[in-house]
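<backbone_tokenisation>
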Amino acid sequence: MTSDDEWVLSDLQHAGERGWRAFSDRVMGGISREQASVALVDGRRCIRLQGEVRLENNGGFIQIAHALRAPDGGPLDAGDYVGIRLVAWAHDEQEYLVHLRNRDTGMPWQYYRAAFRAGPEWRTIDVPFTAFQPEQLRRPLDRSSLASLGIVAYGRRFHADIAVARVAFYR
């Protein structure tokens, strides 16, 4: 769904919303544990990621990810937008990451990341594309070929509990 100011990528207020998947550092030998579910948090339908981030065995993340596809099935072109807008909640005030992947991110350890803070009230969070830093890449983010978006609990031992009700590109 698009408007003049936004392109909505995921809105959990619509019962048919699908496309989120969860995974953790267990795919590479870590021991973090994740659970994702469609939930109702403070009256809002959302995708909720809960779990324990652990650092053993070179681990340290849990994630929910959503594929980004253009109507023709290819990557999304967000070149006309300036960032990602989230409506998010967290059990307690914590820093989380947004990960973006595009045609430049061929390996699992390659992505673009930007930090944001979420807390125990629903809030709208704007993350400009200029905030995204490359991880194991040399090029800056090319937003004309976006393939997936992830919400990530990363890098320190903690109990993660974050919910996202809506994701959009904004102008």
